[in-house]
């Protein structure tokens, strides 16, 4: 049943002081019920305020003009569908116990599908297109080389975010242990910020991006319609 217009639905019944029975006993029951139901209350609050719950994000933003971002944008654009508003590329250093277990790469996008945001992985299309896959790897290698040269060597996670309005962000994390099993899990390790992570934990940011893109498209559409009207008028 849809509860969109019924915000109280699903909330626990909590005894109030002053109800029937011993006031002290009722008060203690109320406190116990409130404590027991706090997780449900927090989930309800998160849902209605757009706040994301979960473990703290260990990543930090990198300042500076990181090299490799334009090349990465061009490479991913060749295999991305229409409607992409955000592209996310992540590299994670994997460990198993105390031993290195290689590196994991994730490339995903967030789509604006008729007004509804959706997550899509580009992993399969990149595997099917070795040339573009190699270009993505080369661009990420350039990002890594820049980060290493600017004091960020030894990081465990590198996250590149490319927005459709031209904006971008690079985030890194140290001291994160991610195993091959962690990235294969569903959901994956919380430090692996794919498209679903952005939809869940960065929803307000994505909504602001969608608003900016809508405002940018409106003047372009008006100019296009104006040119069409001029062409029709001249042809008559």
Explain briefly what this protein structure is.
The chain has helices spanning 23-49, 69-77, 123-127, 130-149, 180-184, 195-201, 203-235; strands at residues 60-61, 84-96, 99-113, 116-121, 157-163, 168-173. The chain is α+β, with helices and mostly antiparallel strands and 236 residues long. Helix 2 runs antiparallel to helix 4.
Give structural notes:
The protein is an alpha+beta fold. It is built from seven helices and six strands. Strands 1-6-5-2-3-4 form a six-stranded antiparallel beta sheet. The longest helix is centred in the last third of the chain and has 33 residues. The chain is elongated. The N and C termini lie far apart (57 Å).
Mean pLDDT across the residues is 79
Q: What percent of residues adopt helix (DSSP H or I)?
A: 40-55%
Distance between the termini: 57 Å
Per DSSP E runs of 2 or more residues, the count of β-strands stands at 6
Order of helices and strands: HEHEEEHHEEHHH
Class of secondary structure makeup: alpha+beta
Instruction: Give the biggest sheet.
Output: 6 strands, antiparallel
The spatial strand order of the largest sheet comes to 1-6-5-2-3-4
Radius of gyration: 24 Å
Uncertain runs: 1-20, 29-53
Count of alpha and pi helical runs: 7
* Tertiary shape: elongated
Strand content: 15-25%
Topology:
Elements: H1 23-49, E1 60-61, H2 69-77, E2 84-96, E3 99-113, E4 116-121, H3 123-127, H4 130-149, E5 157-163, E6 168-173, H5 180-184, H6 195-201, H7 203-235
Helix pairs in contact: 2-4
């Amino acid at each position: 049943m849809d509860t969109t217009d019924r915000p109280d639905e699903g909330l626990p019944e909590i005894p109030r002081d002053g109800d029937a029975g011993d006031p002290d006993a009722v008060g203690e029951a109320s406190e116990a019920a409130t404590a027991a139901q706090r997780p449900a209350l927090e989930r309800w609050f998160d849902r209605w305020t757009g706040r994301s719950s979960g473990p703290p994000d260990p990543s930090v933003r990198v300042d500076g003009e990181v090299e490799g971002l334009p090349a990465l944008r061009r490479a991913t654009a060749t295999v991305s569908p229409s409607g992409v508003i955000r592209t996310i590329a992540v590299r994670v250093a994997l460990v198993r116990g105390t031993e290195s277990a290689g590196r994991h790469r994730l490339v995903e996008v967030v789509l604006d599908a008729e007004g509804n945001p959706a997550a899509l992985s580009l992993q399969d299309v990149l595997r099917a297109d070795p040339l573009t896959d190699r270009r993505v790897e080369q661009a990420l290698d350039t990002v890594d080389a820049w980060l290493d040269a600017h004091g960020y060597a030894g990081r465990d996670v590198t996250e590149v975010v490319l927005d459709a309005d031209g904006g971008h962000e690079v985030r890194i994390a140290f001291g994160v242990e991610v195993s091959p099993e962690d990235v294969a899990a569903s959901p994956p390790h919380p430090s692996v910020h794919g498209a679903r992570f952005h939809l869940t934990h960065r929803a307000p940011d994505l909504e602001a991006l969608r608003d900016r893109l809508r405002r940018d498209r409106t003047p372009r559409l008006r100019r296009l319609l104006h040119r069409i009207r001029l062409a029709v008028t001249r042809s008559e």
